[in-house]
Amino acid sequence: MKKLTKSEALLWSIALPGFGQLLVGQYFKGGLFVFLEFLINVCSHFNLAIMYSFLWEIDKAFKVIDYQWLMFYPCLYMFAMWDSYRHAMPEEEKLTFLPFVFGAYFITVGLMLSPKLTIFNIQFGPVFWPMLFLPIGLLVGYLIRLVILRVQTNK
């Protein structure tokens, strides 16, 4: 079984949820993540929304998105990344899941708020708003992790 670095695991999982697991021989789990990503992506029309968003046809992106399906995507995506990252760690790191969990929460919030949010009357749509919320979620999760670790160390 091949050992991935944490960076490799994250980057392959960003490319497609499940790839990090497949590369280390976790075929069932990796295949399940790839299947779920494909199912959610197709049922939510996410690729079409991504295409419209990058063409800056935000109104079309909003019209094609199925929020009922797309709401599953952030948790699947971030869990697959964390799972791949966790298996690539050289030793057991504590609370590494927190940035991933809060990243998923904040992406979901960004997705839910995307129809209502604008900056300077510019609408960023159902693709770019969640992407903009991700760094905030990662930062919140990382800071909470630091606080908890510091409190545990001081005991």
Determine the number of helices (DSSP H or I, runs of at least 4 residues). 9
**Largest β sheet strand count, sense and barrel closure:** none
Percentage of helical residues? over 70%
Which regions have little confidence, pLDDT < 50, spanning 5+ residues?
none
Which strand-content bin applies to the residues? under 5%
Class per helix and strand makeup: mainly alpha
What Rg do the Cα atoms give? Answer: 17 Å
The overall strand count is 0
Shape annotation: flat
Compressed to H and E, one letter per element, the order equals HHHHHHHHH
Mean pLDDT, nearest integer?
Answer: 92
| Number of structural domains | 1
Descriptive notes:
With 155 residues, this protein is mainly α. The protein has one domain (6-154). It contains nine helices and no strands. The protein has helices spanning 6-15, 19-23, 27-44, 46-54, 58-64, 67-70, 73-88, 97-113, 125-154. α4 packs antiparallel against α5 (58-64), α7 (73-88) runs antiparallel to α8 and α8 (97-113) runs antiparallel to α9 (125-154).
Structural key phrases:
single chain, 155 residues, mainly alpha, 9 helices, 75% helix, flat
